[in-house]
Amino acid sequence: GLAGKQSKTANRDFARQVSEWTFMEIGVLKVGKVEHHLSSISHGTVGNDSVAQLGYLNPQIYRVKNDVTFNIELSEYTSTHFSPFTVPPLDSLQLEFTMLSPFHRLNLKPISTTHNSTIFSATFTLPDQHGIFAFRVNYKRPFLTNIDVKKEVTVRHFAHDEWPRSWMISGGWVWIAGVWVTVIGWMAFVGIWLWSEPAYEKGKGKKMQ
Fold this sequence. Notes:
Elements (H helix, E strand, L loop, with lengths): L11 H11 L3 E16 L9 E4 L6 E3 L3 E12 L2 E4 L9 E5 L3 E6 L1 E5 L4 E8 L5 E9 L7 E10 L16 H23 L14
Parallel strand pairs: 3-11
Antiparallel strand pairs: 1-2, 1-4, 4-5, 4-9, 6-7, 6-10, 8-9, 10-11
């Protein structure tokens, strides 16, 4: 300082933040585990406890109208270490389930934190459309490194033994009834025709036309 006095510049904090950002000591986002799995949703409970995992992690194929959960782990580097990433209040981290264009665009919610990361999650029902889809998280904001994560999966249609039986569909009862009426009517006609005795003219022994 001057004359033994310490002086403090007004832009010291600004210069420090600019240098840290320039040398990537702040604002660096890191992607940890990325997981997706088949889910079972319990409508009687609330929150994360309402979702249960079915099957194994990161399958390559799903079926249309399956309930699916997607999780992504994010950290932010702050000066000396990674810490849990927090989305700003007026911002949102979104998941897209997309083919050529997004079929779903959902906000990812934080469900748990570790000492250096936050796990974000979303649960949704797959669209009634088969094909090659992708889970995508595309997060690009000023002063933060970009995140663009893409995981492709196949969505298949219903197998022949996964459709509900026809008698379980109320709209098919009319057609089922029509089939049985036709069968019973045909059997009744055949029975009457087989067991009906032909009429003969008296004294001639010939069938009457």
